[in-house]
Amino acid sequence: MTEDQSGATTDGGGDRRDVVVPLRVYKTVTVFSTLIAVACVVGGFVLVDVATDRASAPASEIDVPVAIGGIGLILAGTVVYAFSTRFRTAEMGKSKDDADEPSDNG
């Protein structure tokens, strides 16, 4: 595992980048990113629900721009949550680094 000047660490062969931050920053990122992700996903489903008239509208009456906006909002929530999982504190270990687990567990 190597660490660059920004404090990000990388596994030798993977693309995953973990950003090591203080505990206070980690808590803040986790709380707000989760709130934003949940709001985006719920809002996206509400928009899809409105666009399809509670899934009862025929295909010709679906409001396509609103439906696409809803799907985009769901995807945005997914991206926010996935980005937030890159943060960790110095005290946090990775489960694959634990000695009690075999390295070939997938």
From TrEMBL:
InterPro entries, sorted: DUF7315 (IPR055739)
Keywords from the UniProt entry: Membrane, Transmembrane, Transmembrane helix
Domain of life: Archaea
Residues passing through the membrane, by range: 25-46, 66-84
Pfam families noted in UniProt: DUF7315 (PF23997)
Domain annotation DUF7315: ranges: 17-101
Protein name from the UniProt record: DUF7315 domain-containing protein
Natural source organism: Haloarcula nitratireducens
